[in-house]
Amino acid sequence: MGKLFENYVASYCLDRIDSREFFDIVGDLYNTDEVQGLAQYPQHSTINRLDHIRSVTYMSYVYCKKLSLDHVAATRAAMLHDLFYYDWHDGDWSHRPHGYRHPGFALKNARVLNPAISKKEENIILRHMFPLTVIPPRYAEGWVVTLCDKYCATRELLIADHVRFRNKFEEKKVELLYFKELLADA
Ligand SMILES: [Fe+2]
Ligand SMILES: [Fe+2]
Hints:
- This protein is mostly helical.
- The chain has nine helices and two strands; from the N terminus they run αααββαααααα.
- The protein has a two-stranded antiparallel ribbon.
- Helix 4 (49-66) packs antiparallel against helix 5, helix 5 packs across helix 7 (119-126) and helix 8 packs across helix 9.
- The model has no long low-confidence stretch (mean pLDDT 93).
- Bound molecules: fe (ii) ion (2 copies).
- The site of one fe (ii) ion has 5 residues, from loops.
């Protein structure tokens, strides 16, 4: 559990740690107005959708690499897995039921943003809400992304709504950056 949390916290420190390979894979998507614009939408409590997506994407990248899976496809799909342009808390009937429908909205938007999207990436996006949506991911990479999504969602709710978890998060961030700086100086 400790490593999972460390990688989650690292997703908030990508400008301070060595994340060149990560951004080589996904920087072209991350730096678009469409993805950056997701910062305006709340995702889980006070955590915005851009922060959520960056965490899910970074963790998917780390764990798919560790498992020798297709980390490029997983990372690129994870970056677009919640690419929808509305606040899902707004109660608008056209988004309902949001939990079931937003993977389809995200996939449609992902195809516009990245016309070269692969079938595997499409499946990862479309199936990321399993088991809420009943068809499971077809690829191992899709399982990693859906698990990272659930881990991040849970963490975000805890951090946003409980001061104890927020303090733990802030402490870990300081610790992580302190050790990275020590390593860089060595
Ligand atoms: Fe989602
Ligand atoms: Fe998500």
